[in-house]
């Protein structure tokens, strides 16, 4: 078998021969035959006619542009080179790629050094840009997650969605856009998924076709493979911000105003029980992280999450993370188990990343048994729906409780609902800051303190100009906050303030 360099040389010679065949031969090659020529060379007439027919066929036959052909051939060469270099690299490094004792930086340097040696030994005619591209793509495939690795490094990309090996979408600055990269095939995508889940001791196959996992940097991963995923494996990665957003960031984005930020900080320091609600991708976890940053540093905080995302700066923080069942279906530790256990850990604050099941009952019990200042998130469409979902999840605990008793628990436990939405322009805004007052008959009374005003419309680029505005109503829990020596400027609630 000839080497790749020989095959590349042969391909270049074939291209040159094709170019010479297409080019005119001599100064008069394109001129029609004259009468004298026809009379002096009658035997050449059939040949000339056939060449004219061939030339006409070449002119009428649809051929791809020469530049496109060369680009396609160059792409094929690079792909062939990548496969060859990748194979040689795996032969040389071998088990070092999976050595648990080797530091990631050392492995990165080792792979790049061997990769440079292998590329030099190949003696391939590559430009510096192509060499850099091959080096980066092979490094991403071996050390990272293949074609989606550049998007995981891009700070403007908040979510990566793979709908089959040829269809990758990104959420960039709140908008969905298609990605230019693709996986080579379904097997390539499955290898990437296996690499992600195997690092945390999970597996995904036909017997367990769905998995929730977490990357080393904290990014959340969900994968679904056939037979559940009809059109090929689906992979969704919600990136974890290495530098968490602060209250000032939310103000600059328009999610909060300075007045509402001061009010929420006072509510947290005043030990109010807060629920952050909203739809998927509305920014609940970011808001929860900002609210948690307002907790004083002299309190013991216990955080409970499915995937550890909260980044608290306080000194006295205990972080707990739930655990799914193992291959045998055993060993699961749920959010509810952790909430129950946290009450024995002498917490001043209990923070739950998301309440989605019967843990709602235990969360209400915690809020009602001296753990004031607890915060959690919950999926819902609005403040009223937040309470309805809380009631439904309490019923999931299997307790045969009357609805009025559940609502009394909710009204007594929850003080404030902060509802967040993702708007059409891709921005994430807090749309309601609502007080939970008391029971009136069988209904829990709610009172909006700040409401998002969308009447200002949109600017020329389609961005919303709305903002949070006070309703003019003062909340009843100001007295509860006063017991914690926290006061709020009454002018915060004035309707004429921006």
Explain this structure to me?
The chain has 498 residues and is α/β, with parallel strands linked by helices. The chain has 3 domains: 82-143, no CATH class; 145-238, Beta-Lactamase; 247-493, P-loop containing nucleotide triphosphate hydrolases (Rossmann fold). 40% of the residues lie in helices and 18% in strands. The protein contains 16 helices and 15 strands. It has helices spanning 4-22, 35-40, 44-60, 66-93, 104-122, 128-143, 149-153, 186-198, 247-253, 258-269, 284-292, 335-342, 359-368, 383-395, 403-413, 478-483; strands spanning 157-163, 168-172, 175-178, 210-214, 220-224, 234-238, 274-278, 301-305, 317-321, 349-352, 375-379, 416-422, 428-440, 443-453, 467-470. The strands form 2 sheets. It has a 9-stranded mixed sheet, with helices on both faces. Strand 13 (428-440) and strand 14 (443-453) form a beta hairpin. The chain is elongated, with a radius of gyration of 32 Å. The termini are far apart.
Helix content: 25-40%
Which range does the strand content fall in? 15-25%
Uncertain regions spanning at least 5 consecutive residues: 26-50, 53-57, 66-71
Question: Architecture of the largest domain in CATH?
Answer: 3-Layer(aba) Sandwich
Quick check: average pLDDT? 79
* Widest sheet, order of strands: 9-8-10-11-7-12-13-14-15
Give me the secondary-structure category: alpha/beta
What fold name goes in the CATH topology slot of the largest domain?
Answer: Rossmann fold
Distance between the termini: 77 Å
Specify the biggest β-sheet: 9 strands, mixed
Overall geometry: elongated
The tally of structural domains comes to 3
What's the CATH H-level superfamily name of the largest domain? Answer: P-loop containing nucleotide triphosphate hydrolases
Task: Enumerate how many helices there are, as a single number.
Answer: 16
Please report the first level of CATH classification, the CATH class of the largest domain. Answer: Alpha Beta
Rg on CA atoms, Å: 32 Å
How many β-strands, per DSSP?
Answer: 15
